[in-house]
Amino acid sequence: MAAVTFNAPGGDGSTVTDDSNPTTGLGNGGHRTRFVPALAQLVAISAVANTNATNAAASAVTAVNAPGTNGTSSTSLTVATGAQAFTTQTGKAWAVGQPVAISRTSAPATTQMFGTITAYNSGTGAMSIAVSQSKGSGTYTDWTIALTGAPAPQYSLVAVTGNVTLVANANDYFVTANAVMTFPSSPAVGDTIPFRLARSPATLTAVSFARNGSNIMGLAEDYTVDIPYLAGEWKYVDATFGWSLR
Asked: Which residues pair with 236 in a beta bridge?
């Protein structure tokens, strides 16, 4: 006796035999009531198998784009700082606040933008990034997006020859003359300002940092430079401690 039990995914667990069993057999006229239902079970099982194959193919595509924090975009973007909006893949694991690099796929070393995700819709693939730094120029449609560490600020050397209001995360100040250097009025935690003195305080007799409403190393006082050839970096810690010299 041969028997088939439809217990594969999609089947109902019923059994058909080739004998004359009054419950399961196809013999002795049993085929009249059991043959068509048996075919229906085969169709149901085949449908589930087809669905599983489709899902497996979709998973393979997802694996190609893995991990979930890498992707691509063909949106036309002009290399620049500021807000950038484009479309990438759906179903990624990106989250608002993550730092990312947007690199031109065909020239990643020379054309890049760095910034922070401000919006991502996993259902549509729409993404927005606040770009803080860029490298290169031009408008392109081949982009690779990936998580990255926060890029180090790129400083421009600025000679201080008189009173100046300092700019965080942008300039490296080289003090060549007496000056009052005023801190930014609304600093953010982590803001940095590097500086160095070209000569000693014996020559630079009136060099100071004005707090501009923020504390300096925990004190509500301006900072007068009295260390020869002082060089360092100011970092804004918080509203209580204010600017820290390191």
From this structure: 243
* Best CA proximity match to 73, nearest among 133, 129, 116: 129
What is the C-alpha to C-alpha distance for residues 153 and 234, in angstroms, rounded to an integer?
14
pLDDT at residue 63 is higher than 50: no
List residues bridging with 233 in a β-sheet: 194
Nearest residue to 99 via CA among 80, 118, 85, 112: 118
Confidence of residue 212 (pLDDT cuts 50, 70, 90): very high
Residue with tokens 């009249």: 32
The pLDDT > 70 percentage for the chain reads 85
The string of DSSP letters for 179-198 reads EEEEPPSS--TT-EEEEEES
Find out whether the peptide bond into 187 is cis, omega within 30 degrees of 0: no
| Whole-number Å distance between alpha carbons of 223 and 241 | 14
Distance of CA 246 to the CA centre of its chain: 30
Q: Are strands 143-147 and 15-17 parallel, antiparallel or unpaired?
A: unpaired
How far apart CA 91 and CA 141 sit, in angstroms, is 21
Identify the band that residue 69 occupies on the pLDDT scale cut at 50, 70 and 90: confident
Give the dihedral sign, CA 207/212/213/215. Answer: negative
Structure tokens that stand for 21 in this block = 């069993």
- Whole-number Å distance between alpha carbons of 127 and 94: 9
- Which two tokens mark 228? 């020869």
